[in-house]
Design a protein that fits this description.
The protein is an alpha/beta fold and about 160 residues long. Strands 2-1-3-4-5 form a five-stranded parallel beta sheet, with helices on both faces. The protein has six helices and five strands. The chain starts with a strand and ends with a helix. This is N5-carboxyaminoimidazole ribonucleotide mutase. InterPro entries: PurE_ClassI (IPR033747), PurE_dom (IPR000031), PurE_prokaryotes (IPR024694).
């Protein structure tokens, strides 16, 4: 089980760190790189073309501003690509979101919320869980734990408000 996490700039790492941590929590190997769709297009294309042969099964590509990284990666691989738009200094990340989600027919990129690193990781886990039953079990437990936290918070709230 291996996911590649590609970021357009090292400044994207704070958004990617929760994704990397989440993937590792599920026991998934993470390969992380910095590549740019515009400044290192050949490097990005070469990585995408060879990722499957290196054992990568899903790619998360994160970029801000003119966020074409996920699309460039998707254009050079048959692996699932998850686009993670990064909030930039302009337009609160809307530019990144639109650059990531608006892909031409035949080049799909699954896109999560702006700065949604953890959800990008969880989507990658869900994709891999189709192949790895151990991940399915861990995802069920993860969702159960989320539910228990909400139920506990609800009980705590009702207790506080009943005083």
């Amino acid at each position: 089980m291996k996911v590649a996490v590609i970021m357009g700039s090292k400044s994207d790492l704070p958004v990617l760190k929760p994704a990397i941590d989440t993937l590792r929590d599920f026991g998934i190997e993470v390969e992380a790189h910095i590549m740019s769709a515009h400044r290192t297009p050949e490097l990005a294309a070469d990585f995408a073309k060879n990722a499957k042969d290196k054992g990568v099964e899903v790619i998360i590509a994160a970029a801000g501003k003119a966020a074409h990284l996920a699309g460039v990666i998707a254009g050079h691989t048959i692996l699932p690509v998850i686009g993670l738009p990064i909030k930039s200094s302009t337009m609160d990340g809307l530019d990144s979101l639109l650059s990531t989600v608006q892909m031409p027919e035949g080049i799909p990129v699954a896109t999560v919320a702006i700065n949604g690193g953890k959800n990008a990781a969880l989507l990658a886990v869900q994709i891999l869980a189709l192949k790895y039953d151990t991940l399915s079990d861990l995802l069920y437990k993860f969702k159960e734990d989320m539910q228990l936290k909400v139920v506990a918070a609800d009980a705590e709230l009702r207790e506080e408000l009943s005083k």
